[in-house]
Structures are given as structure tokens and as C-alpha cells.
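Just wondering, does anyone understand these C-alpha cells?
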Amino acid sequence: MIQINVAQLLKEPVGSTRSYEVDDAVEIADGDRAVKGQANLIRTNRGILVKGALNTEMELTCSRCLTEFICPLSLEIEEEYFPTIDILTGAPVAISDEPGAFTIDQNNILDLTEAIRQYTLLSIPMKPLCQEDCAGLCPTCGANLNKEQCQCPPKPVDARWAKLTRLMSGKNQKR
């Protein structure tokens, strides 16, 4: 968990900043992942704005060849955290009506864990690839074409495309 005590920053004027090095593990999806980077905290009129550039990695399955691989992820976090108590009086403060708003707890601890988890899940590619030119699997025998050539016979050309195939093969011969 990445927790920062922001009591002093909440007492300072709007625009005050603090910088923190992030180097910790966060539980994301299937286990703990190392997260490293820089987080800048800026005092706003409503709370604390967190801007961070963080790096982590996830173990994903390639969408073409189905092998597991480690995918590096870069996160650009920008979230505002709202206090739940007044720093000077200790009285409860009305929590923001914004859906999904992040809060600073009653002990003035700002927890980055949930924001990092959410940003990581959102940065996972929709179709992860182990390598940009992944050849995938043979649709007939299932061989991983990145590791081996399959022994399947070539598929016959559809008769409707035969003239176009001849045209294309003739074009390639002229080059």
C-alpha cells in the first residue's frame, strides 16, 4: 500500500507542493506488482491533486499466440483527493458528490493504492501482443508460428479469387 501523510500539506496555502518517490508493491488483479516512479502532490482549494508518472508491469496472455509474457505499463495519474475532516477543527467535512471520488481518511492519510490499481487496469492493452510481429497460431493444427513452421498443406485458393491471385503473382514477378 502506498500511503502518504498529508496533514502538513493540508495546512499550507493553495499551490503548495510536495514530491514523493514511489517504490512499493500494489495488489493488482492477480497479485502484487512493483510500482515505481514520482508522485507530485499539489494543495488545491478543495483538497490535494496528485500527479504522477509511474511504471509497473503485468503478466498478460498474447491475443495471437496465447503465450504468457511480461508487459511493461506506464501510468500517468492525475486525481484529486478530498479530505473527510477539517484539518484545523477535526470536524467532519461533506464528501464530494463526484462519483468515484478519492478521499483522504480521518488520520490525514492519502492512499494511492486504489488509484494505481485502477489506472493499471485501464492501461492494459485490449489485444496484448507478446511482440509486435507475433505470427500467432496455425488455424488448422494450432502450432505456435513464432516457434515453428506447421506441416499443414497450403489451403486451396478459392476459385472466385483465382484471377486476382494470378494477377498478383504476375505483378510480383515483374518486380
Observations:
- The CA atoms of residues 152 and 169 lie 22 Å apart.
- The chain has a mean pLDDT of 89.
- The helical segments are 7-11, 113-123, 162-174.
